[in-house]
Design goal:
The structure holds four protein chains of four kinds. Chain B is an all-alpha fold. Helix content of chain B is about 70%, strand content about 0%. Chain D has one domain. Chain D starts with a helix and ends with a helix. The chains are: A mainly alpha, B mainly alpha, C mainly alpha, D mainly alpha.
Chain lengths: ~80, ~120, ~500, ~240
């Protein structure tokens, strides 16, 4: 069960990282990265690191994403 | 590989590291490069957090009725610092991107090279 | 007294955080605050150095937590580079007073001084770190502030160069963090002495090699060692001149000091032969000496020339570490200190000239030496020193390197060294020729006025140190020899 | 050609990393050095040494407090860095006049969203206080609380900020708040020097002394973090 959870999380991480790499829509990429951080946070919670998970959720998925969205708002959302 | 399937973790993190590095090297858009850098950073964080886990362990918070082994608190503290450093660098890089856009009109590395 | 060790880095770091609040109502206070802190740092470093010379290296357990449970700081012969950091720091802060008024927009100025102080504090912390993760944190303090300072003056090339620098720097920092993670996974410790001890019992070879490789690669990028120097020239040339001085004189040395700190960790492993790594470093260093000097020769922009000259000089230092004989390493480490003084002199003098004249290429600046006699003298002293003429400061490092190359039985490297020195001579001759012996191309040059006293004083003081450094060089040489002996002895 | 080179470089990097990592102790092995050396000491003595039941907090604020001091200066430097890059330059560069910075498109929150955020604000603030207060006994602590508080301030400024140029906190006070983290550590350094005989040491006397120091650090980190996150947000949003 626990192994299965890990496998699913790792597969999700890889999939989302690839999606970030592939999409040409920067807004989508930033939001995908936010999701990637949340999955990472779940994985760490499962590894006995709730402090790190909490910080990653707040900083990686939260603050980083807000900053990315603001910057994308000022520079354009399409990647050429 | 004799260490059992949990080395799979490390392999997944190497894959993430390489995906991030690919984005940094191959993508022209600066925002995209920065996302790649963040993926690389989280992959290293994940490696370090995982290196501190313990079979059947719990979070390193001492309390009554907890007799499971603790995950090592040391890597957790390091990664807390690492996450803060990462967001600091991201914030600065995004500020630079906004400034580059304002001054040069584009944030594509290919076009910036031509404009220099 | 021993409590000064953790406070040396803490003073500028806390002062940096307070500076924008202090300068909020009185923007003029920012400069005074920063200079006072710089002077305080110089005083503390002086006391630490006196203790080092009297009693030898000493440690401090921060918070009273004995190592390896807590963080250990250690002031040893390598940490003595703090003196260079403090000297250059004070000069740069004083110089910034007038310079920043013209080059840094008013709303950015308090933050600019704040970042300079963070940079200096991080550098001192790095020089005194005896703990791997503390080393990383200090490195990041220096890195974040450096990336931003490049763009402090504004301008499109500066913003782009800062971004390029940031990406290269962040990837290299990540490599270092990755290696710290591996070493921690192998030994369960972060204290460097403890890691070195416990690493000797580690049987797995793969992770050890990976950590060594990641650390070497990471610090090579930080040191801008050829061919990983591509981020350096634009960043150092487009930054405001006082920032260029800090970056070229101090920040690139982080990579070299980092290497000198971490390589001994691996010396206790009987199966690991470091000779191929040393050989590779020596070759890269030799190539960097010549390639950097050639590139400098091709530049028309004064600050770009100086930036490529840094690439070349890092080559000297790394060659010394790579040759790995006591004399060669002494030469390399002495050059770490003296190159800091010399390159700071050159960048500040160049900054004063560009600031007063408004031009930055050799063509446009022709004849400026006669219009700015004092700055010209300082620049010339710096040039003599960097070429390595006795008795200036630049002579000592190269002399010991030459002896080291011969001692190692590698005359080929000695030739590269001399060829580099010759090339340096040629391109600095170009500068002197343009400034003194060519008729001005721009008539405005004749009307250029000498730099104001607050810029001239720090430049002249540094230039004087460049001149006298060679005469009173026994102290630094003795310290470098001590550090070299520790490096060679692997502990 | 370039793609090929990139692919080759990635393959080499990946292969080297895999080969190296394969030799590490199995993650989760209780006999690995990660668990038997420094961590074992902290698990055995952490509570008694620091009074904090959350051992991550014990590491962050006691054993490795000097690193955490560096960390709060790093995040302060991030703010300084963003200010130095984005604060308006007095005059546009000669030759080419740069267009004015385009502010982020103003988000027009619906009245319902605004109402909900205002309604929730005190509860979010209370949650942040809880996370901070229990940093010694539960996962979480000053920085996490600071980020939650910072997020709350950002939300509030989204709701109230449209057309309202005056910031939530007076600018002069904001400067002091942004320095709260390093300031708290400076205070802890002096307290440690006086009370424990070592910079950043925890005083043994009085009995509540070390709790007070830990709480001071958590407060400084939390308030400073929140103020810096708000500052970053405002500067990145553009005026």
């Amino acid at each position: 069960m626990s192994a299965l959870f890990d496998l699913v999380m790792l597969a999700l991480l890889l999939g989302m990282a690839l999606a970030v790499a592939r999409t040409r829509d920067l807004l989508a990429a930033a939001i995908l990265f936010s999701g990637y951080s949340l999955v990472m946070c779940l994985l760490w919670l499962h590894r006995g690191a709730p402090d790190v998970a909490m910080t990653e959720a707040a900083v990686g998925a939260g603050v980083t994403t807000i900053l990315f969205l603001l910057a994308i708002g000022r520079t354009g959302r399409r990647e050429r | 590989m004799d260490g059992g399937w949990q080395h799979l973790d490390y392999f997944a993190f190497v894959a993430l590291f390489c995906i991030g590095l690919y984005v940094v090297l191959a993508k022209s858009n600066l925002v995209k490069k920065l996302l790649g850098l963040n993926i690389m950073e989280t992959s290293v964080f994940a490696f370090i957090v995982t290196s501190g886990m313990v079979d059947g362990g719990t979070a390193p918070v001492v309390g009554p009725g907890i007799d499971a082994p603790f995950a090592s608190p040391l890597p957790h503290a390091l990664i807390l610092t690492g996450i803060v450093v990462a967001v600091s660098i991201t914030a600065l890089a995004l500020a630079l991107i906004v400034e580059i856009k304002r001054q040069c009109g584009t944030i594509e590395a290919d076009e910036l090279k031509g404009a220099e | 007294m021993e409590h000064l060790l953790p406070l040396a880095a803490a003073l500028p770091l806390v002062a940096a955080a307070l500076l924008p609040a202090v300068a909020w109502r009185r923007p003029d206070a920012a400069w005074g605050w920063a200079v006072a802190v710089g002077a305080g740092l110089l005083g503390i470093v002086g006391l630490l150095l006196r203790r080092l010379l009297q009693d030898g290296p000493f440690s401090y357990a921060v918070g009273g937590w004995a190592p390896p449970w807590g963080i250990e700081l250690r002031f040893d012969a390598l940490s003595a580079f703090s003196l260079g950091i403090a000297l250059v720091g004070v000069a740069v802060l004083v110089f910034s007073g007038r310079y920043a008024q013209a080059a840094v927009p008013p709303q950015r100025r308090a933050w600019y001084y704040s970042l300079l102080l963070v940079n200096l504090g991080g550098l001192v912390g790095f020089a005194c770190a005896a703990d791997l993760f503390n080393l990383f944190v200090c490195m990041e303090l220096v890195s974040v502030s450096s990336y931003a300072l490049v763009a402090a003056g504004g301008g499109r090339i500066a913003a782009l160069a800062a971004f390029k620098y940031l990406v290269a720097g962040a990837v290299s920092s990540l490599l270092v963090l990755f290696a710290v993670g591996i070493l921690h996974a192998l030994t369960g410790s972060l204290n460097m002495a403890d890691v070195a001890l416990r690493l000797a019992d580690v049987e797995a070879r793969g992770p050890v090699l990976l950590a060594l490789g990641a650390l070497t690669a990471g610090f090579m990028v930080k040191a801008a060692l050829f061919p990983l120097h591509l981020w350096l020239p634009d960043a150092h040339a487009s930054a405001p001149s006082p920032v260029s001085a800090v970056l070229s004189a101090l920040v690139v040395k982080l990579g070299v000091l980092g290497l000198a700190r971490v390589l001994p960790l691996f010396a206790g492993l009987d199966w690991l032969v470091l000779a191929p790594l040393h050989e590779g470093l020596a070759w890269l260093g030799a190539i960097a000496i010549v390639a950097g000097a050639l590139a400098a020769l091709l530049q028309e922009d004064l600050k770009l020339m100086l930036a490529y000259s840094t690439v070349s000089n890092i080559g000297y230092i790394v060659l010394g570490l790579g040759l790995a004989t006591p004399l060669a390493m002494t030469g390399g480490l002495v050059h770490v200190f003296y190159h800091a003084l010399i390159k700071a002199t050159l960048f500040l003098a160049a900054g004063a000239i560009i600031h007063q004249a408004g031009f930055r290429t050799l063509r446009d600046l022709r004849g400026v030496g006669r219009a700015m006699p004092w700055t010209g003298v300082a620049l010339s002293l710096g040039v003599l020193a960097i070429v390595g003429l006795p008795p200036t400061a630049g002579f000592l490092g190269k002399w010991y390197l030459l002896l080291g190359a011969l001692e190692a039985g590698r005359p080929g490297f000695a030739v590269a060294l001399l060829a580099g020195a010759l090339l340096i001579f040629v391109y600095y001759l170009r500068i002197l020729n343009a400034f003194y012996f060519r008729a001005p191309l721009r008539e405005q040059i004749l009307a250029v006025r000498e730099a104001p006293l607050s810029m001239l004083l720090p430049v002249m003081a540094l230039a004087l140190l460049c001149l006298l450094g060679g005469l009173f060089g026994s102290g630094p040489v003795a310290l470098a020899a001590l550090a070299a002996a520790r490096l060679a002895g692997g502990g | 050609m370039r793609r090929l080179l990139t692919a080759l470089a990635l393959a080499i990097v990946g292969a080297v990393m895999l080969a190296g990592l394969a030799g590490l102790p199995r993650p989760g092995d209780p006999a690995a050095p990660v668990h038997t050396h420094v961590a074992a000491h902290i698990v055995a003595h952490g509570v008694e040494d620091t009074g904090s039941r959350n051992l991550v907090t014990a590491v962050l604020l006691a054993y490795r407090a000097y690193d955490t001091f560096g960390e709060v200066v790093v995040i302060f430097a991030a703010l300084a860095a963003v200010m130095v890059v984005l604060a308006p330059a007095a005059a546009p560069p000669p030759g080419k006049t740069a267009p004015p910075p385009s502010p982020a498109p103003a988000v027009a929150p619906s009245p319902v969203v605004g109402f909900v955020i205002r309604l929730l604000a005190p509860f979010i603030a209370a949650f942040a206080a809880l996370v901070l207060w229990h940093g010694e006994a539960l996962p979480g602590g000053g920085f996490q609380a600071g980020v939650i508080l910072g997020a709350l301030l950002v939300l509030l400024s989204v709701v109230m900020g449209r057309g309202l140029e005056q910031p939530l906190v007076p600018a002069a006070a904001a400067r002091w708040l942004q320095a709260a983290g390093p300031l708290a550590f400076a205070a802890a350094m002096l307290i440690g020097l006086a009370g424990a005989g070592a910079v950043l040491g925890l005083p043994a006397e009085p009995a509540w002394g070390r709790h007070a120091v830990l709480l001071l650090l958590e407060l400084g980190i939390g308030l400073g973090g929140a103020a810096i996150i708000l500052g970053l947000y405002l500067q990145m949003r553009g005026h």
